[in-house]
Amino acid sequence: MRTSTRRSRSPMTSSPRSSSSARCAEATILRGPHVDLEGYLKAVGHLKDAVGFFSSRENFTSKERFLNDVNVLLSKSSLMVEEEFKWLMTTYSKPIEGDLILGSPPKLRWASDGDAEADGRNSAHSEHPSKDLETAICGTPALIPSRILPLLHSIAQKLVQDGNQQSCYKIYRDARRSALEPSLRKLGVEKLSKDDVERMQSDALEAKIGKWTKYLQITVKLLAGERKICDEVFEGISFNKDQCFTELARTGVAVAKTLLSFGDAVAKSKRSSEKLFVLLDMYEVMHEVRSEVEVIFQDSFCSEMREAALGLMKLLAQTAHEMFVDFEELVEKDTSKTNVHDGTVHPLTIRVINHVKFLFDYQSTLKLLFQEFETGSDTESQLAVVLTKIMQALQNNLDGKSNQYKDPALMSIFLANNIHYMVSSVRRSEAKHILGDDWIQIHRRIVQQHAKQYKMVAWGKAVQTLSIQVASSSGTSASSDLSSSGVSRAMIKERLKSFNMQFEELRAKQSLWTIPDQELRETLRLSIAEVLLPAYMSFVKRFGYVNQLFLDLV
Predict the structure, then answer these.
(1) What are phi and psi for residue 378, nearest 5 degrees?
(2) Angle between helix 518-542 and helix 408-427 axes, rounded to 10 deg
(3) CB neighbours (10 Å) of residue 384?
(4) Using CA of residue 29, residue 30, residue 31, residue 35, what is the dihedral sign?
(5) What residues contact residue 452 under an 8 Å CB cut-off, 6+ apart?
(6) Strand bridging mode 477-478 / 470-471
(7) 180 with 226: CB under 8 angstroms?
(8) According to the UniProt entry, where is the signal peptide (predicted)?
(9) In angstroms, rounded to a whole number, what is the distance separating the alpha carbons of residues 95 and 310?
(10) How far apart are CA 187 and CA 514, in angstroms?
(11) Which residue of 187, 269, 379, 415 has the lowest C-beta tally within 10 Å?
């Protein structure tokens, strides 16, 4: 608590010739700067003008005493201004919870109402500070209310003009450091090496990176807020504000270095397809805070931090870009030994399609990457080229994996299942806008080709069994009914028996095969029926006693 020192006898009363303005200035100064800071500073200015005026008057009999009293009052006013600066800086410099910076506007309590009342402060700037909070969730937080900053600026200007730079420097630095350091310590940022990162399971690493993202944003926002305060308080004042900011932000810089070190360790750790998304997340955050980083560390004292931050962003971008482009090769050269005995969709297909789907959550980030590393075409077409290559690499790998099937029909089922899964997944996702309708139509025809191949290989022989070719009287081969041909009952019986055996064998074997997509499954069933039923009905129609043959086969 600060109290104003009042004298029982005014120094101005010692001189009958002292001006009325000087006496008014004296009264204002003795009341202290906390009542009306602007008026207080004007009063100090009036006293200085009075000193200048009377100093030039040689015939003023009480000049020495008057000047002595005024100088004493000016010295006292300087101490009172310094005291006011310290009170304001201390009152409005309180730690802030990191979550509040990224969440809803924080309700900070810099000072209680009781503190203000006890100090006798009833001016506008002694209202509860939290009522004037101007924290922007996505912008630079207002760590000190905007209405207080002009007051601090005016006082700092006065202190520097009076030659009290060091005192001003120390008060400001200590007050803001007392707010910043606890805020950063509460984050609990831990230092992790590349080896630590390598040993982490994917879930643990994702959790760490989630915290890293949050801590980095909080640290940058806090430092950006401090830089903003420092710039506004010392704007236009002959004062080394950059050095002051660097000293008070020393802990923040240390935390930032730890965070950048972790980012560097992640970027340089062992690569995997899953880690691409982690790097994209980190790159996205670094890109978001880039402009703030450049402002925070703009001066020569902080150039090392600025270069380190920009260097990490470039490393993350380079690594993520390489992993994205190299994913095509990883897919094509995949040698996983997973055997799909029933011809269903291969795990590789599911994994790659999921990977591609996730990529579309990062479209804007990927476009930023292409802007940094590619030239000559728009980013969307570049993305389409890479995705087309990835899908082709998957198709090539599936062609190779299909060779594990000794049954050509099951091979066709496998390829139809997987290509159909690719097409249907693309149609239902953002990928359709990038790959385009032509890609979808081309691959739908590929599915149809595999379905046709399956039908021909699996059911062709059975259908052929129901077709009996006999020689006509002209010696040419032609279909005929029993009455006009030499086809024996034994041959008909044998053909029917063979068909039944083949049908049962195919039914038993193919019941173990899987077509998970209902649309594809029904399409294949209909295509089989379109071939098998007409052949069977034709056989029945040609040989009217076929029912009896069935009975004979029982």
Answers:
(1) -70, 155
(2) 140
(3) 18
(4) positive
(5) 527
(6) antiparallel
(7) yes
(8) none
(9) 28
(10) 52
(11) 379
Q: Rounded to an integer, what distance in angstroms lies between the CA atom of residue 422 and that of residue 432?
A: 11
Closest CA to 259 of 280, 285, 296, 277: 285
DSSP one-letter string for 355-406: HHHHHGGGHHHHHHHHHHH--SS-HHHHHHHHHHHHHHHHHHHHHHHGGG-S
Provide CB contacts within 8 A for 5, sequence distance 6+: 76
Which residue type, as a one-letter code, is found at position 217? Q
- Which whole-number Å values give the CA distances from 174 to 86, 184, 251, 264, 534, in the listed order? 10, 15, 13, 32, 94
Token pair 């292409």 is found at 370
User: Tokens at residue 454, please?
Assistant: 């399956």
Q: What angle is formed at CA 289 by the lines to CA 371 and CA 97, rounded to 5 degrees?
A: 155
Cα Dmax for the chain? 156
Residue 477 pairs with which residues in a beta bridge? 471
Q: CA-CA distance, 96 to 551, in Å (whole number)?
A: 91
Name the one residue in this structure whose structure tokens are 């139509």. 441
Residue corresponding to tokens 């030659």? 163
Q: What are phi and psi of 311, to 5 degrees?
A: -65, -40
DSSP-derived secondary structure letter, 320: H
Q: How far apart are CA 487 and CA 484, in angstroms?
A: 9
For 270, list phi and psi in degrees, rounded to 5: -55, 135
Those residues whose C-beta lies under 8 Å from the C-beta of residue 263, and which sit 6 or more positions away, are: 212, 216, 282, 286, 312, 316
Residues 6+ apart with CB under 8 A from 463: 531, 532, 535
Would you write out the chain's pLDDT as a tens digit for each of its 554 residues? Answer: 454 444 434 444 444 444 555 566 665 666 656 666 666 666 666 666 656 555 555 665 555 665 666 666 666 777 778 888 999 999 999 998 877 777 543 333 333 344 444 344 544 444 433 333 333 334 667 889 999 999 899 889 888 988 888 999 999 999 999 999 999 988 888 888 889 998 988 889 889 999 999 999 999 999 999 999 999 999 998 878 888 888 888 888 899 999 999 999 999 998 888 889 999 999 999 999 999 999 898 877 788 888 999 999 999 999 998 898 889 999 999 988 788 899 999 999 999 999 999 888 888 898 888 888 765 566 778 888 889 999 999 999 999 999 999 999 999 999 999 999 999 999 998 888 889 999 999 999 999 999 999 999 999 888 888 876 544 444 444 444 444 455 677 787 888 888 889 889 999 999 999 999 999 999 999 998 988 888 888 887 776 555 555 545 54
Give the single-character DSSP code of 106. P
